[in-house]
Amino acid sequence: MSSEEAVTEASAAKSVSDLTEGSEVVLADTEDPGGAQFYRTHQAQVARAVPHVPIADHVRLILSEPKNEVIVNFPVRMDDGRFKLFTGYRIQHNNILGPYKGGIRYHHDVTLEEVKALASVMSYKCALLEVPFGGAKGGIRLSPAQHSKRELESITRRFVHDLGNNIGPEYDIPAPDVGTNSQIMVWMMDTYMNTHNQIDKNAQKRIVTGKSLASGGSRGREKATGQGVVYCIQEWADERGVRLDGCNYILQGFGNVGSHAAQIMSRLGAVLVGVQDHTGSIYNPQGIYPRKLIDHVNKEGGIRGYAGAEEINNDDFWSIESDICIPAALELQITEEVAKKLTAKLVVEAANGPTTLKGEEVLKKRGIEVIPDVMANAGGVVVSYFEWIQNKRSESWQLEEVDSRLLFMMKRSYHEMRAFAREHGVDNRTAAFAVALNRLNAVYTERGVFP
Ligand SMILES: NC(=O)C1=CN([C@@H]2O[C@H](COP(=O)(O)OP(=O)(O)OC[C@H]3O[C@@H](n4cnc5c(N)ncnc54)[C@H](O)[C@@H]3O)[C@@H](O)[C@H]2O)C=CC1
Ligand SMILES: O=C(O)CCC(=O)C(=O)O
């Protein structure tokens, strides 16, 4: 760098610091090792499916990057009176099958590339499950635990305000993901309604899904992702004559998805022998009671210190003797090293993108089967679709109806994926992406190319 350039850089930095003095700036994409790797991993996984289905060139190109990338920077007043600048993303990958759809993540590692990967995953998930939605995802780089309820509400409302018409009940419909919940969805809905003046307020409820029951949510949405994970495990067990009663499993992530999956697995007699979350890892070969662990987590904010299990090193968690492994936390967790340690016969990807490319290679070599994210965790978006329909029609379905419709859709796609895998001699992930790609390609080619 010449001395002139150095002076210019220094004065530019100075003027930025003048602008932000006294406030905290949470910069968006300063470092992004994980997000970029996740995006490349996801694209490589999709690319493996391409030789197995006839994809038109223009369709491949369209799907290779998101259609829209919305980034908003907005200041919010913190409880101490100072302003903090946040960056929010809403990435809209594809909407050929219907409105953009996907969760909102609040996590300190959120980056543009991570949200791009997650948005693209949603397009294939919806296509595989025949949910008439496209794929999107959003997020803000923040640690929810470090903010008061009031701060979280202000951040959420400001984010929705600044997204403006980039979301809408027939255009792009957010939902919960890591670090967000029904309360955040209800704040989003309320802010949208207050900033978009329409007479039919009831119809506007479907701007988000994953709301509380009182504010227009669906029965069964909160447990839906975990329920769908277990439906997949049941199909896998039936196919192979495995009894779930008495089988051992380990679980990474004990939030919405993990804790619900664990409660449902318990009802089937499966034994939870190890859990890991952001606070540590615990082990009990006699079984950990999900309900008691939930009570502990609600009080303490994590699994650490739970009296009904022994605390172990995070590194030892993956080698716990088990039949099934359920990653239900973040992406890129099942690395080469982790895959070598696993004793399970099945990995069920409750999380999005939990397995690295190298990790997958090892799993394959070791004969460990994978039910991929786009299939395993699709229960959430399926019941979000049911919530959206119920809001649109002013209906309220009973839980039995929600569960039986969910089971039907999960089973249908699971067996489509398995049939493709058998017919083409490919793994479940490649089959799942191939079925989804086929569907997207068919719609694009039938509709033709706009000149
Ligand atoms: N909430 C939903 O409906 C859906 C969620 N998913 C996916 O499921 C996964 C979990 O999501 P939620 O349960 O909603 O999130 P959550 O915020 O409710 O729970 C996340 C869990 O992951 C744990 N965790 C975070 N960092 C960790 C780390 N470094 N090591 C170990 N554990 C860690 C947390 O302690 C917590 O137990 C994510 O990949 C999400 O994208 C997929 C489909 C739908
Ligand atoms: O429920 C939804 O709309 C989206 C859920 C989600 O973000 C996901 O499946 O990863």
TrEMBL record:
<comment type="similarity">
    <text>Belongs to the Glu/Leu/Phe/Val dehydrogenases family.</text>
</comment>
<feature type="site" description="Important for catalysis">
    <location>
        <position position="177"/>
    </location>
</feature>
<dbReference type="InterPro" id="IPR033524">
    <property type="entry name" value="Glu/Leu/Phe/Val_DH_AS"/>
</dbReference>
<dbReference type="InterPro" id="IPR006095">
    <property type="entry name" value="Glu/Leu/Phe/Val/Trp_DH"/>
</dbReference>
<dbReference type="InterPro" id="IPR006096">
    <property type="entry name" value="Glu/Leu/Phe/Val/Trp_DH_C"/>
</dbReference>
<dbReference type="GO" id="GO:0006538">
    <property type="term" value="P:L-glutamate catabolic process"/>
</dbReference>
<feature type="binding site">
    <location>
        <position position="256"/>
    </location>
    <ligand>
        <name>NAD(+)</name>
    </ligand>
</feature>
<keyword id="KW-0560">Oxidoreductase</keyword>
<keyword id="KW-0547">Nucleotide-binding</keyword>
<dbReference type="InterPro" id="IPR046346">
    <property type="entry name" value="Aminoacid_DH-like_N_sf"/>
</dbReference>
<dbReference type="InterPro" id="IPR006097">
    <property type="entry name" value="Glu/Leu/Phe/Val/Trp_DH_dimer"/>
</dbReference>
<feature type="binding site">
    <location>
        <position position="225"/>
    </location>
    <ligand>
        <name>NAD(+)</name>
    </ligand>
</feature>
<dbReference type="InterPro" id="IPR014362">
    <property type="entry name" value="Glu_DH"/>
</dbReference>
<keyword id="KW-0520">NAD</keyword>
<protein>
    <recommendedName>
        <fullName>Glutamate dehydrogenase</fullName>
    </recommendedName>
</protein>
<feature type="binding site">
    <location>
        <position position="101"/>
    </location>
    <ligand>
        <name>substrate</name>
    </ligand>
</feature>
<feature type="binding site">
    <location>
        <position position="384"/>
    </location>
    <ligand>
        <name>substrate</name>
    </ligand>
</feature>
<dbReference type="Pfam" id="PF02812">
    <property type="entry name" value="ELFV_dehydrog_N"/>
</dbReference>
<dbReference type="Pfam" id="PF00208">
    <property type="entry name" value="ELFV_dehydrog"/>
</dbReference>
<dbReference type="GO" id="GO:0000166">
    <property type="term" value="F:nucleotide binding"/>
</dbReference>
<dbReference type="InterPro" id="IPR036291">
    <property type="entry name" value="NAD(P)-bd_dom_sf"/>
</dbReference>
<feature type="active site" description="Proton donor">
    <location>
        <position position="137"/>
    </location>
</feature>
<feature type="binding site">
    <location>
        <position position="125"/>
    </location>
    <ligand>
        <name>substrate</name>
    </ligand>
</feature>
<feature type="domain" description="Glutamate/phenylalanine/leucine/valine/L-tryptophan dehydrogenase C-terminal">
    <location>
        <begin position="218"/>
        <end position="448"/>
    </location>
</feature>
<dbReference type="GO" id="GO:0004352">
    <property type="term" value="F:glutamate dehydrogenase (NAD+) activity"/>
</dbReference>
<dbReference type="InterPro" id="IPR033922">
    <property type="entry name" value="NAD_bind_Glu_DH"/>
</dbReference>
